[in-house]
Every structure is written in C-alpha cells, then in structure tokens.
Amino acid sequence: MLSCGLIWNKDRIHLTTIRVRLTLSKLSNMSELITQLTDRLCYSPAIEGDASCVRTDEVGNVLPPQKPNAPIKLEDVIYVESQIGFKLPPIIRQISTEVADGGFGPDWGINRLKHPLNLPFGPHWEIKMSVESWHKLYHTSNDDNQLATFPNHFIRYCEVGCNISICVDCTSESGYLFLDDPNASDPIQPMGVTLEEWLLQWLSSNPWPKQMYS
Questions:
Q1: Domain count for the chain
Q2: Which of 90, 142, 159, 200 is the most buried (most CB within 10 A)?
Q3: Would you say residue 16 lies in a domain?
Q4: Are the beta carbons of 191 and 115 closer than 8 angstroms?
C-alpha cells in the first residue's frame, strides 16, 4: 500500500510539473507577443487598412504614423466586463492594459474596449465604435433590431470593412476567432485560429517599410 501511494504521489507530482511548465511556456509566449506588438507599433502604421495612416506634410515628407489608443487600466477592463456580462480572455486584458486599447492591427483595426466618456452611444455608422458599444447595440431588445441574434459571450473585436468583422469567442481563455459577415447566408463562421495565432500571423506579415518611419 505504501509503494502504491508513493507511485500515485510521483504521478501527481509529474502531472503538476507538466502543468507548471505549460503555464510558464504560455506566459513566456504571451510576453514575447507583447514585446513584438510593442515593437511593431513603434514604427508601423497603427491601422494598416486606413490610407490616412501614411501622412505627409505640406512638402510631401512622410510623417510618423498615428499612434494607437493608449492602454487602459485594469479597472477599466473590469468595468467593461461588468457592462458586457462576462470576463474577457487574459490575452485581451493584457494587450489592452500593456500595449494599446485598440486602434491598431490588420484591416481597419482592433476596436477599443471602453467607450470614450465624452462620446455618446449612437448609430454605428456615425461614431467610432468600441467593444462596449457594439455589445450594447447587438443586445438591444428591439424587435426591429436584427443584431439581437449575435451570439452570447462573443465580442466584436476587429473591423474588416463593409460591416464585416472578426469576433472573439470569450468562452475559453484561448479566444477563438469567428468571421461575422452579415452579407452571407450563414454570417458567423469559425476562422480556425486563436487570437494569439492571428496576431502572430499579422506580425509575421510584411509591415509598411520601416525606413519610412525611422
């Protein structure tokens, strides 16, 4: 009985060690992602789908890219979570508090989490939307509002254009992505990647020439 107990304890210790190593590996990968994002945003346009990112002065000299939104505090993230009714994946929390609260990324850019205090909620074609404001719009209890069928625990995270967006499924820490195309017969389709994988793909793509902003 004693030997069996020792074997069981060794197995449990081994499994615990594996979990710790996986956790440390995940933390290391996340730290590397944060570093890469920060470095990328130092010189590359914040939003690559927006032609206004490449700005010139009166004689045609290229000006530095417009900066992404400033990071927000953890209490701001917690406030947004209280408004949408669920907790955001750790990767979104960390990016928003350590890198930027949206205003960067592929296509037309990642949405900020928190709606600006001085900006009223309104029709999405008139104002710059946030995760918070999109959630309010999607879940408005109005019979005429077709957006009310938007899946629970999804957030509208990145704008692709033509009202097409990339959404994050917040039911898991990995944050799997879905493409929401209201023009399609089956509008919400899985992209088969996590948010981290998607961001790494963007980081590995060719950014705007670094010499333009050095």
A1: 1
A2: 159
A3: no
A4: no
Tokens of 161: 């254009």
* Within-domain flag for 115: yes
Q: Report if residue 186 sits inside a domain.
A: yes
β-pairing, 164-169 vs 188-194, is unpaired
What residues make up the domain containing 147? 27-212
Three-class DSSP category at 82: helix
Chain CA centroid to CA 209, Å: 24
The CATH number assigned to the domain holding 34 equals: 3.40.1580.10
Establish if 87 belongs to a structural domain. yes
Query: What pLDDT digit, counting tens, does each position of 19-61 carry?
Result: 433 333 444 578 888 988 888 887 665 665 544 455 566 777 7
* Model confidence pLDDT, tens digit, residues 167-199: 999 999 999 999 999 888 888 999 999 999 999
- The tens digit of pLDDT for each residue in 122-180 reads 555 445 789 998 888 887 756 445 555 688 899 999 988 888 899 999 999 999 999 99
Instruction: Give strand ranges (E) for the chain.
Output: 154-161, 164-169, 176-180, 188-194
